[in-house]
Structures are given as structure tokens and as C-alpha cells.
């Protein structure tokens, strides 16, 4: 049983929710009622998840020493020694080759998106994550690649609005990730990660709030834009901004009142309020369509 948990942890299956961005074009184009497109998109989600697992393993291999000194990440299979580095490397290479082969077989453009995602993340793991600010941009670009990969699968080019909001929301994910590292570093004398040295809590707090504000403004502009009103055949889509604002306020409450972890993806898995809020937001899109 312990070995199964180690492999689940190594593959980061809990992080597969992030690959839901692959399904964004399917949802916003309202093509999810098309069984063929839905099946294709879900297959793409699966392939991108394999690619993400390979990337996570490579990152854990490169970060083995630093993770061993981390109060939480020291429990990861490679850092703890539960899974040998050589075996993990073989698995990562096999997953990479498998997902690339299947991705290009499914769609050439989708395959290129997966290949670029793996390539920039390998660069990130080796060196780019140690360059302050650029590390955040790389993480955000990875999510944009997910959206475009999903769009290429169903022949729908993601809109400017979807691209912009994906980048901004994923930037908040990246800022939250760095904030967790800094908070843990401040609470211990041990070295956590060298690439968190260029950040402090104040900068990250201000950045998260600022980017969240930009997301809200962009979302309002998105719901009021003529092309979106024409696409959804309804001028009242802006009413669901209440769910977006409520979601951010809940996130800020967790950060500044409860002093909890900053990673939104982890919060979504644990926070019932956020889960219900997201479901209501998704349902509101369907209800507002004529």
C-alpha cells in the first residue's frame, strides 16, 4: 500500500486538476454536448496529464537535494529515497516518449503544444526557475499552452480574453506557490529553495492582490464585450461576476485571515465553499445562454 502511495505521489495525480485548462476551449465554445469532441478533449486531458507527470518527475530529480531539506517536500518519494532516482528517470523518459507519440498521433498541433510544454519545463527545472520573475512567467505560459492544446484538438482558436485570463489566473497560481515556499522558509532555519530568495511575503501578497484585481476587471470586460454578448446571445452574462469576486475573496480570507497555504489548486481540492462556488459559476454560463 505504501508503494502505491509513493507512485501516486511521484506522478502528482492530485495536480491533474490543473490540466483541466485543456478542456477550457471545449467549455467556452459550448462544444461539450458533442460526444466526439468531448471524447477527444478528455483524451487530450489524459495525454497532457501524462506529460505533466513526466515533468514533475524530472523536476523532483533535479531538486532532490533541496527537497530533502524542505519540511514538506522531504516526504516526496525521490527526496525521501522511497523511489530510486534511476528508476524515476527511466519512468520519466518512458512517459515523455509515450505522451509525445500519442499526442502527435492524435493531432500534430496538439503534439507540438505538448512538446513545447515539456521542453520549457525541462529548461525551467534545470535553470529558469532560479531567475526571479521569469520563473513565474514560465509557469503561466505552461497553462496557456494547455488551453491552446485543447483548442487545437477541437479546431477552436482560444479567444484573446480566454488567453489573457488564463495567463493571469495561472500567474496567481505561480505567486501562491512561491508564497508557500517563502512562508515555510521564514518559519525554519533550513534552506528551502534557493529560487525563493528573490521574493518576500510583502511582494507576493501585493502581487497576488494586484493580479486578482486585473483578472476581475478583465472578466467584467469579457462579459460586456460585443463579441461575447453575440456569442452567448445574452447581454446579462456579467451577473455571474459575483461568483468570480466571491472566489477571490475566499482566497484572500484563506491567505490573510486564516494564514493558510497560498496554492489555489490545493485549496480547490479542500475548500467546500470554493467547490460549490465554481460549480455555480459553471452552471451560470449554461443558464445565461439562450
From TrEMBL:
Its main location: membrane. It holds the Pfam family UbiA. It comes from the Bacteria. This is Prenyltransferase. Keywords: Cell membrane, Membrane, Transferase, Transmembrane, Transmembrane helix. CDD domains: PT_UbiA_2 (cd13963). GO terms for cellular component: membrane. It is found in: Membrane. The lineage of its organism: Bacteria, Pseudomonadati, Bacteroidota, Chitinophagia, Chitinophagales. The chain crosses the membrane at residues 20-37, 43-62, 83-103, 109-126, 133-154, 160-176, 203-224, 236-252, 273-289. One of its GO terms (molecular function) is transferase activity, transferring alkyl or aryl (other than methyl) groups. It is a multi-pass membrane protein. InterPro entries: UbiA_prenyltransferase (IPR000537), UbiA_sf (IPR044878).
Amino acid at each position: 500500500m505504501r508503494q502505491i502511495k509513493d507512485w501516486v505521489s511521484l506522478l502528482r495525480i492530485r495536480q491533474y486538476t490543473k490540466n483541466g485548462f485543456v478542456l477550457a476551449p471545449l467549455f467556452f465554445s459550448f462544444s461539450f454536448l458533442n460526444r466526439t469532441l468531448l471524447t477527444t478533449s478528455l483524451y487530450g486531458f489524459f495525454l497532457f496529464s501524462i506529460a505533466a507527470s513526466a515533468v514533475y518527475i524530472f523536476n523532483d530529480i533535479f531538486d532532490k537535494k533541496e527537497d530533502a531539506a524542505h519540511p514538506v517536500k522531504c516526504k516526496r518519494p525521490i527526496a525521501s529515497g522511497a523511489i530510486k532516482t534511476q528508476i524515476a528517470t527511466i519512468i520519466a523518459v518512458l512517459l515523455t516518449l509515450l505522451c509525445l507519440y500519442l499526442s502527435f498521433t492524435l493531432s500534430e498541433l496538439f503534439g507540438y503544444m505538448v512538446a513545447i510544454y515539456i521542453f520549457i519545463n525541462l529548461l525551467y527545472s534545470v535553470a529558469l526557475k532560479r531567475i526571479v520573475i521569469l520563473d513565474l512567467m514560465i509557469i503561466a505560459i505552461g497553462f496557456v499552452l494547455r488551453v491552446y492544446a485543447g483548442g487545437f484538438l477541437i479546431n477552436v482558436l482560444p479567444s484573446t480574453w480566454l488567453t489573457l485570463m488564463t495567463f493571469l489566473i495561472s500567474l496567481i497560481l505561480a505567486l501562491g506557490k512561491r508564497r508557500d515556499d517563502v512562508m515555510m522558509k521564514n518559519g525554519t532555519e533550513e534552506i528551502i529553495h534557493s529560487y525563493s530568495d528573490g521574493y518576500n511575503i510583502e511582494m507576493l501578497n501585493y502581487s497576488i492582490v494586484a493580479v486578482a484585481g486585473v483578472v476581475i476587471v478583465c472578466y467584467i470586460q469579457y462579459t460586456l464585450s460585443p463579441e461575447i454578448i453575440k456569442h452567448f446571445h445574452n447581454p446579462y452574462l456579467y451577473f455571474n461576476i459575483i461568483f468570480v469576486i466571491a472566489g477571490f475573496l475566499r482566497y484572500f480570507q484563506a491567505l490573510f485571515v486564516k494564514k493558510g497555504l497560498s496554492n489555489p489548486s490545493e485549496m480547490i481540492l479542500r475548500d467546500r465553499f470554493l467547490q460549490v462556488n465554481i460549480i455555480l459559476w459553471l452552471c451560470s454560463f449554461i443558464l445565461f445562454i439562450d
